[in-house]
Amino acid sequence: MLKTMSAPDEKEITPEEAPENGKGITYSGNKSETVNGKTKDATSVIELVCLAAFTARLVHYAKVIPRERFWKDPKNICIFVIILLSLVDMIIYGVLKASGFYAVRWSRVLRPLLLVNITEGRQLRRAFRSIRNALPQILYVFLLFMFSVLMFSLMALKLFGKRGLKTIEGRPYFTNYLEIVFDLYVLVTTANSPDIMMPAYNFSVFFAVFFIIYILINTYIFMSVFLAVVYNNYKKYLKEEVRKLVRAKRHKMVRAFGVLQERKGEEPVVSQACWNQLVRLVQPDISNAHRELLWSVSDDNNKGCIGKVAFVQLADLLNIQVIMMKSRPHPLKTWLPSLYLSSPSRLVCRMVQHRAFVYTYDLIILVNAVFIGLDEEDPLIANVEWAFLVLYLLEILLKLYSFEPRAFFSRHQFWNWFDTIIVITALIAMIINSALKLSGGYTSRQILDIVFILRILRLIRVVDNIKRFRAIINTLIKIGPTILTFGQLIVVVYYIFAMVGMELFKGKIRFFEANSTDPDKAFCGNPLLKNSVFAKHNYCKNNFNNVVSSFILLLELTVVNQWHVLSSGFTAVTHISARMFFVLFHIVVVIIIINIFIAFVLEAFFVEYTVDQSNLQSSLENKIEELELGVKQEKLDGNLVDAMETNDNDMGTSESTKEKPALMFKIACKRYKTVDGLLQRMFEADLDPEDFAEDEDFDPNNPSNLNFPNPTFDSV
Amino acid sequence: MLKTMSAPDEKEITPEEAPENGKGITYSGNKSETVNGKTKDATSVIELVCLAAFTARLVHYAKVIPRERFWKDPKNICIFVIILLSLVDMIIYGVLKASGFYAVRWSRVLRPLLLVNITEGRQLRRAFRSIRNALPQILYVFLLFMFSVLMFSLMALKLFGKRGLKTIEGRPYFTNYLEIVFDLYVLVTTANSPDIMMPAYNFSVFFAVFFIIYILINTYIFMSVFLAVVYNNYKKYLKEEVRKLVRAKRHKMVRAFGVLQERKGEEPVVSQACWNQLVRLVQPDISNAHRELLWSVSDDNNKGCIGKVAFVQLADLLNIQVIMMKSRPHPLKTWLPSLYLSSPSRLVCRMVQHRAFVYTYDLIILVNAVFIGLDEEDPLIANVEWAFLVLYLLEILLKLYSFEPRAFFSRHQFWNWFDTIIVITALIAMIINSALKLSGGYTSRQILDIVFILRILRLIRVVDNIKRFRAIINTLIKIGPTILTFGQLIVVVYYIFAMVGMELFKGKIRFFEANSTDPDKAFCGNPLLKNSVFAKHNYCKNNFNNVVSSFILLLELTVVNQWHVLSSGFTAVTHISARMFFVLFHIVVVIIIINIFIAFVLEAFFVEYTVDQSNLQSSLENKIEELELGVKQEKLDGNLVDAMETNDNDMGTSESTKEKPALMFKIACKRYKTVDGLLQRMFEADLDPEDFAEDEDFDPNNPSNLNFPNPTFDSV
């Protein structure tokens, strides 16, 4: 049941690179000889390959999974339909183009749905489901909000329309109702504040009151209400989802227990041998020591077998990240004991482990920061930079000398890895740069850029040495995986909007390089943009001509500022109704998705602030302590990474290893392998660990969790 | 102990109206003859009167309160010091001006502190204390955020500084470190996006990545973290404050119990007579029926006396808003029973109470909205408007006919009042307008504006008829009082910044009316602004020349958009370091106060979503039901206002009054008299109602709650 089902390896859909100039693309069938046609051919071929891969995967699934189950899962049906539609679209497009008609590749909008519907897109699917469920509530607030905007617009029309005021561009001010609605909608996003208010304000101070009330109600109160509603609903449905997921997991574990159980006295139990076999099957790479530790947590009373409750915990236990630390002597100590244990060597070690060593290097970094700020073309400063690099290298070598290298470079020593990689890369880049300079007097701008960036990244280490900062950064790093889920969500939504945008606006606005002398440059290659604000702001490169610039443009629209200017450019080259596209984007991305993002960051921070470790974790920790396998841990921030770096003694230094056992465990307290772990913890307070009452009330109508035996179950 | 201490009546400090032109103000002592001097004189006199009022109040307090207590209270000391400093400042200013020196009225910055420190400023004081306590946490995040900005600036300097790029205005792009820091700080506020990125983006698409990462980290993640930290800390300290307040209240109630108690059997109790006397003293305007109801809740078992726990509840009980509804027959029924009870009259009543009546009027309102949108100068449309007004009047009259007028206009019928006032005012304004028109053909623009606004406000009623919308609006109305607390907070902070801004920038930028032909108009009267973006955007009226325009300008800065342009104007006319003022304002208002505002709206909404009625409220409600005094209440939204409007039967209609008792009670469930009530409810879950263990652990070192017997205790 827990067996991993390996999915066929495949790559992501590559966004097709459309030609930058976007001039009159003529598609001329598969045997086209033009450059554009070739690009089209290439993307078509890539698309076919991708579709073939998805089809292969679907066929593979269909063979593995019972037929009725396969067709009951909406995910599979969805993928099947999308593949079919894409093929139909490709054929229609090819035929239409070959016969010289205008055709739209509408199936491109469907592509992200493939990403959502594959098994690995579980997080994404859950996020989408949460949004879908929260929509009705959001809709009511949105309607009320729009009613308020419409009312204020009507008021603005009546108050300002007949006064003959002019905007700064000399256009009549607030005379057309639909224009007013758009302008006031833009004011909600604050993008045209205070410009939109100035004509009225210049006329009379009392008119400013209208705008102040408008901003207070629609920008501050309604936007906060949106956040509250999105936050509340998202949390509610996510909680429900997580609850269902946990119940499904427990249900499966109970069934597994039913298969493996044997009678011993009154209660059904699972023996240690059977349990060991299972764990080895599920996680082949688990160490024996770790497995024994988990068993001793499950079988708290040393009975040699475990009951149902303890068995069901197994999945969660495996989910807790336990760090094994082999306490080993320094290699130099074994190879050259006389030298390494001599008093000068001991002095060096003590020096490196002293607080002053850290402070010295903090000071060096700060001095370095000043030097970086100075002009690097001065040869003196260039030489000083070499000196700094040597100092950083020396630091790493000294640390490697006094700490056990394998502990220093263990998997969880993020900052050590960070330092070393940065310093080594900087060294390599600087050497290459110098070599280039010496050989031909030529300096590669790219390499120099890399050198600069690396040099500055080194400065981040100062922050790492301040405890409070580290706590904040660690929280941020912890919520990183979740932010990535939102990254996927954003990419999917962006992709859909980018595809629609490319169909609507491709080639309408063109960008000319800085050294171009084309007279069209002043108006982005489109006479309709002559003297427009869009062209004046030099926004020509913000266009929908290819996927990359579309994504950057959509990001700018997400940031909101100047989005009315950006949209004005596209409405000028097409039609006023193109505004709908931009308003819709604002509603979907800024009002819904960004608010969910903020809600998640808030929630994650509150969890960090308030929730203590889960019961399971603390019982695991107690067991580690009980068995005296624990690493002495200053509970500074309750965080492992901190403790490992501040308690220098832990790292297997030459002096303190004698009394300790050779193998030690530590729990990476608050770090979770998966987002599910974090979610489960967020809503843990509401989940009863003993509650798996054969799931009578588990909803069998929800097919998303039950119908398909989850192939990636082991990572839950 | 609970006696109200009446404070001397006094008015708020009036912000002085400085002369608009701000040209060379010369202060020439009290006997000055110039216009400016006269304004100054007037404000000085007003200020003296205000100071005298505050002094009188302070002296009054000092007489009433024991001396050692008076001087232990920091509030009194603070007021004393401020009055003293203001006087010293006024004298210094007068002397300096009289002898021709430049002088600054620095004490004006202190004025808002008077508002904070008077007894009535309790909510405000609490908000400030919460902010002060949350500051350290915010500071750490802020330092980390600034570190990130500085690092990115350094990177930008190295990446773009040597590339010879130009901004759209032709200035060198990213060459000065401090300029970069400012530009990137502005980018965090999104005010200069995407302009700041365009030169680099035009150069290479890869440079866009730099800005995307920057925006992601600093705008999205850090700003969310700010919200999280502000939210969390504010909530934490507010909770602590409320806990202390509740404990202090209970402490006082326990002491009151100690004074009033008498022995009866084992336990000390308070008799009903004594209790009645107390309630009558504390709330003289409470009705006997209401008092008896409260007693029957406290003395649940009809023992004729109550114990300590029940006694302590008194303050909270008095805080629950109970609406008494006298069920009276319609006056027409008593005066003209034969007519009112005739079948046509009954038909009218039934018609008005029918759902279709509401729908008909919704339709009328929508048609009216369309007519409002049309050109009102068309005589046909003007006449149609009269028809609509008659229809609205008819609606009110019909409702008054079928419902009991006193119930219709009872204190809590917000929407009935709203309708009637709007319709009547519109009628009066239209009559005045027509009269003016007929008499001299002259139309008053102001009256017409009022007519338009009233006409549009009438449309809000459509929303009220949709249940879901009403629920949202009611929540917003409920958090209204708290928003007002934030209003005070904002006013205090704005006032301080306005005073500093006026000292720094007064008269530097001038506004010319639209019909002015002054050549200085093009650059706001200051040659330093020639060809500046500030002048081009026509921002001249955004200045610090008087308190009103300062407040409007600060509001525009709060909205954030274009704040860099606004600040650029003021730095151009003074010095580059004036940026500090604007950055500081952004940090204080946008990062801290607006986030607290958002946090409060979020919290209030979550409370509305999750928390049920308090125990005390439900026991009161149970008692009302038990005594069969309750109004049958459809629990639609759990809200009274809804219920009263949808259950038309409740309003004492002609038919359904017979079976009901003459007096009925209702709890205004979720509405609180004071902000304290809402706060207490927000944190109620953590407060044990039986926990008043003589307050051994009550902190006597905190003087804010104990030292000063709160004169407004009865309103808590």
UniProtKB/TrEMBL annotation, chains A, B:
It is found in: Membrane. SUPFAM superfamilies: Voltage-gated potassium channels (SSF81324). GO terms for cellular component: membrane. Residues 700-716 have a biased composition (Low complexity). Residues 1-30, 691-716 are annotated as: Disordered. The keyword Membrane applies. One of its GO terms (molecular function) is monoatomic ion channel activity. This is Two pore segment channel 3. It comes from Hucho hucho (huchen).
